[in-house]
Design a protein that fits this description.
The structure is a homohexamer. The first copy, chain A, is α/β, with parallel strands linked by helices. In chain A, the strands form two sheets. In chain A, strands 2-1-4-5 form a four-stranded parallel beta sheet, sandwiched between helices. In chain A, helix 1 crosses helix 9 and helix 4 packs across helix 9. The two termini of chain A are about 25 Å apart. Chains in contact: A-B, A-C, A-D, A-E, B-C, B-D, B-F, C-E, C-F, D-E, D-F, E-F. At the C-E interface, loops of C face helix 5 of E.
Chain lengths: ~250, ~250, ~250, ~250, ~250, ~250
C-alpha cells in the first residue's frame, strides 16, 4: 500500500473533506489517501497574496509527510501554489491539480476550456497554461464569478457552472471542459452527464497521476533543481513551521 | 475490471510480449492488459514509410477492440503513429507512448533527455515534442544507433543506452531520462538504478495513464474532431481491414 | 521536359481529372503533369482514418513513379497526408498542397484565412499551420460545412464558399484567401474576381512550386531523415503494394 | 520627493545596506531610497523553499510601506519572488530585479548572458525569461557555483564572476552581461570596465525603472488581477504579519 | 548634465515641439532634452514607404548628435523606424518609443491594449510586439482611423481615442492602455484620468528609459552587431547625408 | 511574356550582372529578367545603416518598374531590406531572397543551415527566420568572415564557404544548405555537387517563386497593409527619388 497526501492549500475543512473523498475514489485499491489543510493560512485562495500566505503552511504539511513516510502528494488548488518548493522537499512525486488537469485534458480532445471562479484568477491560470506548454490546447479560461467559498453553499452554483461550460464549448470551439477550482470537484460527474463531453477535475486527475507514478516507481528527480535544499539561519515568526526544521526532526 | 489493449504497431511478436508484460505490471489490479500486434505491417518502425504501412493494421486492431468491448488503448511505438485516427475510432481513451512519456517526465523534473534508436527518427520525435507543447522541457533527443530489432538481441544494447543517457544528462543539463522506443521497456529499472535519476518508459507511462483515465471515467471526446467518421465507398486491397467496416460488423 | 506527378489521395476520378487540369495550367511549358489516384482508398478524405487508409495506396503511386522516372510530386489533399513518407521514397521534390498554399499566401499579404470543408478537419489544418511555422500568418480556418464530394455537385457550393471567404476577410482582418481543399481548385479565378484579393489554390501553388524546384535542380535531401528506408520483413495484406517492394522491382 | 522602498528579500543586513547604496546611486535627485529586509525569513534565497518562506515577510514590508506612503518598490532578489503578490498590495509601481535587468539588457544589445550563483537556480531564471518573453534574447544562464553569502566574503568572487562572464560572451555569442544576483551589485562597474560590454545590475535597473515610472506618474493597474484583494479569515502563525491586516491598520 | 536627443522622424515641426515638451517633463533634472526632426522626409509616417524615406534623414541626426556629444537618443515614432541602424551609429543608448512603451506597460499590468492611428499600421505594430517578445502581453492593437496630422487639428481626436481605449479594455480583457503614436503624447494625462487605468505614452516611456540608462552608465554594446560600421563607397543623392561621412567629419 | 525585375540593392554592377544571369536561368521561357541596382547607395550591404541607405534608391527602382509595366520583383539581398515598402508600391508580387531561400529549403529537408558573410549580419538573419516562422527549421546561421565584395575576388572564397557548409551540416544536424548572400549565387551548383545535399540560392529561389506566382496570376494583396500609400508633403534631398512622385509621373 502507498500513501498519497492530498493537501488542500486553504483552511476550509469541509472542502478538504470533499477533496479527500474525490481523491480516494480514483486512487485505486493500492493507495491510501489522506487529505489535510495547511497548519496556517486563509480560508480560500483567490489572489497572489492568498497563495503566498498559504504556501509556508502547505510546505510544513509536506515536510511532516516526509517524516511520516508519505509516498506522493497532490496540491489541490488550481493555481498550483508552491509546487516547485514542494518538489524540493518531497522524495516522491508531487503533482498540482492545474498541471494534471490540463495534461489530462490533452489526452481526450484537441482543445479544452477552463471554467473557474473569479475573474482575477484568470490571468494566472493562462500563465500556467503557457508555462506547461499547453497554451494552444487551452482554448479559453472563463470566470463564473462565483467565489470559492460559495461553491459549497450557493445552490445554483452547479447550474451556473454548467451554463458557462456550455457557452465555452461553443465560443472556444473546444471539446473538453476543465474545472478550474478544487471546490468544483463534486460537480464533475453531473456536469459530464449534462454536457456530453469529458469533464476533467484536477483533484481526480492529479490523484490518478500520482497513483500511476507510484505504480511505475517514479519519484521527483533529485538531480539539480529539485534536490532538497539545506537548512539555513532563519529569522522570525515562520521559524516554527520552517519545513527543513521539520524535515530534520 | 477494465480491459486495456496495448497495441505494438510492429509485427515482432516477442516485442509484443515484452511490452504486454511491462504494461501489465503497472496497470493496477482493476485492469486487464491484452497486447497485440497489427494484422499486417513491418517488423519494426524506423521511418515514416514504416509508420504509414503499420497504421491500417493497427487501426483494424482498434476497430476489433471496440467490437470486443475494450475500454482503453495504448499505442506502443514512440512515433505515436496513427494516434489521432485511433482516437476517432475508440470510445474510450487512446494514449501514445511518446506523449505519455514526455508528459510524465514533465512531472518529475524540469528538463528531460530522450534516448532513442536510429538518427533518422530524431527529427520526428522533436516534432512530436513541439506538437505536444514540450519543446522547452525536452532538452535533447539522442540517437544510440541501435536498430529496434537489435535491442532484444545485442547483449551490449543496455550498456550502450546507459552511456548515451549519462552523457545526455550532462550535455542537456537535464534531470530525467525518457526511453525513446518501446523496445527498451525492459531496461527501465536497471537504468534508473544505474543513473540515479527517474527513467520514464513510455509503455508504462501510457498504460498507467490509460488506467488512471478509466478510473476517472474519462473517455475520448466525441464532440468535433474525434467523432467516429462515417463509412465511405472504398477501393482496393485495404477493404478487408478497413476499420469502419470492422466497426460495423 | 520534366514530369510532375500530381497524386489526388482520394479515389474520386472526376476530381483527379479536375486537379490535373488545374496543375497543367500552371506547370509551365517545360513540365508534363500526370494526375493519378491511389491504387486503393476512400472516395474522399475527411478524417484521420480516411487519411491513414489513403496513404499506403498513395505511396505505391510514388514508388511506381520513381520506377517510371517521375521528377517531382504533388500531394493534392489539404491535410498533406503521407508527405514525410513520400519524401523518403522520392528522389525529386515532393510538395503538399497545404504547405504550398500557406507558404505562397505568406508572400502576398500579412495574414491569410483558410476556407475548408467540414468542421472536423479544422483542428488538423490548424496543427499543420503550427507545424509549418505559419500560425501567426494563418488568421483563421473556417469550415463551410460542404463535404468534399458535394463541391462538384452542389450548384451553390461556389457561392457559399465566397460568402464564407468574405466574412473571413473581415473577421480575421486578413488580406489573402487560401482554399482548404483540392476540390475547390476550379473556383479559384472566379473567387479572386469576386473577392478582390489574392485567392491561393493549393494545387496550383504546389505544382508551381515543384516546377520551380525542378528548374533550380533542387531535390529532396537524402542526408538523414528522408533517406530511402531499407526494405523489411512485412506481414499481411499490404504486401502487394508495399512501396519498397515496388521500388525494388 | 518620492520614496522608493528597495526590499532585499533575505535577512542578511549587510547585503541590504549594499543594495540600498547601489539603488540610491541611480534613483536620481528626486527620489529617496529606503532599503529593508523582511520581518522574517532566511539569510539567503537559493531555492524555491527559500523563496516561499521569504515572501510573507517581504509582503509585510510592502503593506507597511503602503501605510507609510511609499511611492514605489523594488524587489531585490533575482528570482523575483512574490512580485505579483506585491503588485496586488501596492498602489504604486513594483519592479523585480530580474525582469528589470532582462528588459534593460534588451535595449543595449541583441542577446544577453546571465551569470548567477548556484546551478540549482538556473532553471527558475530560464523560466522567468520565458515568462517575460525574453527567451530569444537570453542567450544563456551560467552558474558560477558561488553561494550568495560567499559573494561578500570570498575575495576571489569578483574575479571568478568575470571569468564566467567572459566565457559566456563567447559561448553564447552575446553582447551584454546581466548579473543574476543582487549580491553582485557592487561588482558592476569593475566588470563593465574589465569586459568592455554593458553589464546590467538588476538592483540599479529596477531602481532606475521605478524612478522613471514615478516621474511618468505611472502606477500599478488596479483594473483586474492586481486589484487589492479583500481580507479573509486567516488561521495560524502568520496572522501577525498578514499584509491585509497591516494594510487595514 | 546629460543630453538626450529626441528625434521625431517626421518633418512636422509642431509635433516635434510637442514631443520635446513631453520628453523634457520626464527626463529629470540631470538631463537636457533636445527635440529635432530629420533633415529630410515626409510630414508623417503611416506606411513602410514613409518609414523607409524618413530613416536616412533621421540617421543623419544621430550622426550629427554623435559629433556634438549627445549622450542618448529617443526615436519618437511608434513603428521604431531605423532603430537598429541608429544603434550602430550611437555610442550611447538608443530607445524606440514602441519598444519602451510596450516594456513599460508590462511592469504595470498583465495585458495592455494599443490604440493607434490608421488600420494599415496595425500589422507592423503587431510584428513589433512579436519581435520584442511581448505578443502575449499585447492583447490587441486598435486603429482609431485618425491620421497622424489630424491628431493635432481634429478637436474630437482626444475623445475618439478615449472611446476606442475604453472599448479595448473590455474587448481585450486588458488593464493598461498604450498610445500607439507620438502624436498622442499630449493626451496622456487626460486619458489616464478619464479611463482610470495607467496610460503609457511612448515618448515619455522612452525618454525616462534613456535617462535611467544614462544614470546607470549603460551604453549600446559595441560587441558584434551594433559596432559602428565602416564607411563605404557610396553612389548618388544620399551622399550628402550619409551618416558615416557625417560621423567622420 | 512577363517581366521580372531583379533588384540588387547594392551598387556593385558586376554583382548585379551575375545575379541577373542566375535569375534568368531559372525564370523559365515565359519570363524576361531585368537586373538593376538602385539609383543611389553603398557598394555592399553589411550593416543596418547600409540597408537603410540602400532602400530609398531601391524603392525608386520599384516605382520606375511600375511605370514601365514590370510584372514582379525580386529583392536580391539576404537581409530582405525594404521588402514591405516595396510591396506597398508594387501591384505584382515582390519576393525577398532570404524569405524565398528559407521557405524553399523547408520543402527539401527538415532543417537547414545558412552560411553567410560577416558575423555582424548573423543576428539580423536569425531575426528574419523568427519573423518568417522558420526558427525551428533554421538550425544555424554561420558567418564565413568573407566580406561581400571579396566573394567575387577572393579565389579561395568558394572553398572556404564549402568548408563552413560542411561543418554546419554536422554541427547543426541539418540536411540543406542555404547561401546567405546574393553574391554567392555563382557557387551554388559547385557546392551542391561538392556537399551532396541541396544548396539553395536565394536569387534562384526568389526568381522561381515570382515566376510561379505570375503563372498563377497571384499579385500582392492591396487590401489593408500593402495598399499603395498616398503621396505626402516631403522635405529635402530625397525628393528627387521619392517613389510616389515617380509613381505619379
Amino acid at each position: 500500500m502507498t500513501t498519497i497526501r492530498v493537501i488542500n492549500p486553504n483552511t476550509t475543512v469541509s472542502m478538504t473533506a470533499a477533496i479527500g473523498a474525490c481523491a480516494a475514489a480514483v486512487a485505486g485499491p493500492e493507495a491510501v489517501v489522506e487529505a489535510v489543510s495547511p497548519v496556517a493560512g486563509p480560508v480560500s485562495l483567490e489572489s497572489q497574496v492568498d497563495d503566498a500566505l498559504a504556501v509556508p503552511g502547505m510546505l510544513a504539511r509536506v515536510a511532516e509527510g516526509e517524516a511520516a513516510g508519505v509516498d506522493g502528494y497532490v496540491i489541490a488548488c488550481f493555481g498550483d501554489p508552491g509546487l516547485a518548493a514542494a518538489r524540493e522537499l518531497a522524495a516522491g512525486p508531487v503533482v498540482g491539480i492545474a498541471e494534471a488537469a490540463m495534461r489530462t485534458a490533452a489526452y481526450l480532445g484537441r482543445r479544452f476550456s477552463i471554467v473557474t471562479t473569479l475573474a482575477r484568477t484568470v490571468p494566472h491560470i493562462e500563465e500556467l497554461a503557457v508555462s506547461y506548454g499547453l497554451e494552444r490546447q487551452c482554448a479559453g479560461v472563463h470566470a463564473s464569478g462565483i467565489a470559492v467559498v460559495d461553491l459549497e453553499t450557493d445552490p445554483l452554483a452547479r447550474e451556473k457552472i454548467a451554463e458557462f461550460a456550455e457557452a465555452a464549448l461553443v465560443a472556444d470551439r473546444s471539446d473538453v471542459i476543465v474545472l478550474g477550482c478544487a471546490g468544483m470537484t463534486e460537480f464533475t460527474a453531473w456536469l459530464a452527464e449534462r454536457l456530453g463531453v469529458p469533464v476533467v477535475d484536477g483533484v481526480a486527475a492529479a490523484t490518478a497521476t500520482v497513483a500511476g507514478l507510484l505504480r511505475q516507481g517514479l519519484r521527483t528527480s533529485k538531480r539539480g533543481e529539485f534536490a532538497v535544499p539545506g537548512a539555513k539561519p532563519f529569522t522570525g515568526t515562520l521559524a516554527a513551521i520552517e519545513p527543513r526544521a521539520l524535515l530534520a526532526r
